[in-house]
Every structure is written in C-alpha cells, then in structure tokens.
C-alpha cells in the first residue's frame, strides 16, 4: 500500500494495512478536520491526475520559492536556499513531480531539508530520498513525525548550524520545537530570515503576527511572544520570507519588534478600548 497523504494538511503518513480514520496532524487544536470528513490521496495519484504543477521562481540570488498550482492542502511555499556548496530546502510541500526534480537538480540539488514545524512535514521523506538529503527537525517536535525515516536528524538546544551560513533557531510559539532559518550575510550582509508561519507576515507588510493556531484563531500568551521577540532581537537580519510568499524586504527586524509589542498590548488590553 502506498503512503497516504491527508488532503486537508498535505502530510504523508506511514503505510498501514488499513486506511486510518483520522489524520494525527489534523485532529489537534492547531489544525482541523475538513467539514466534509477525512479524505486521503497519494503522491502517485496527484502526479497521475495531471492537475498540479510546481511554480519554481527565483526570489533573489540564491533563493527560489516553490509553490504548488492550483493550491493543495495548506498551500504553503517552500524555498530552496543555495549556499556556496550546500543547498537547503526550507519547509516542504506535498507535490513532487519529475519536472520539479529536474529543475532542482539543475540548481545543484538539495543537501538538507529543514522544517519549521509539523504542518509542513508533507512528503518530506519522498523529497529526502529523491535528493539524498538529510531532514532536520527539532527534537521537541519528534512526536509529530507521521512517517519516520533514518534520514531524520533530531537536533536539540536553541540553535544548530546546518552548514556555513545556515543556522536553525528554535523559537517555539506555534509548536514547542518551532524553528526559523537564519541565512547569514545575505541581503548585502544584512541577513535574511525564513520563518514559515512561526512569524507570519500579515496583509500590511510592515507588520507580522504570531499564533498558536491560525485556522482556529487561538493566540499565543503575551509572555511567549515577548520571549520570542527577545530571541529574534539577538539575530542579525533585515529581510523576512514567510510560508505564504509574503516578504518584508527591509527593516524586518524592527517590524517584528514593534509587532510583538502591539500583539502583547492587544492581549493586555492597552492597545484599544472596545
């Protein structure tokens, strides 16, 4: 039996003798089960349907976005970040076809896959096996792995250097092991952060937000956001890319700090009176 993919969250689960009645990722406060009920597909069915394709676009030198069209499941964007001789796939999407493989191989392939949190684990094992890459997940989120692999490395602590110029930071919040990727010395030496939706750029690109659950509108505690802001204040960066192709091109460090203050003020009842 092929490994099943949840059509709501896009995460692949380990092959079983029977079809599970529930997706372990979706039956939790931060996600949701579709009102139409639990349904499954497989990566093979997706490819054979000729419904989907991946749009691979260069965002800046050394950084390309990958997004599935039409949108599937959560609809997040993944990124290929190219170092001197080391390429990282930041977060992951479900759909992977021969054209995508050929495009990424032409970019030098993928040496490591780094994940912000479990909602984007998708078909990470398929990607890792295709490109011969290791998968890096913070150990605090190990329990959410739905398809184990010996390619997985569970790192610990608050930061981990993947390779020269690539540093993972555990900042928590959305998940206990929630992680961001620091791309050092890019953007004319000012630094770039890739944040998934651990830090999400909002409609007004001058601000960001932080949430325990985005689809269910559950906020994080003020103390958690203050801690996250303090950690982010110690990292040098000026630009942020989030999980939904939203970018703060400059001044992102200041935007995060003022956004954290606004968030905390709102929770504490001092931002507005309504």
From TrEMBL:
Gene3D superfamilies: Ribonuclease Z/Hydroxyacylglutathione hydrolase-like. InterPro entries: Metallo-B-lactamas, RibonucZ/Hydroxyglut_hydro. Transmembrane segments: none annotated. It comes from the Bacteria. This is Metallo-beta-lactamase domain-containing protein. Residues 75-244 form the Metallo-beta-lactamase domain.
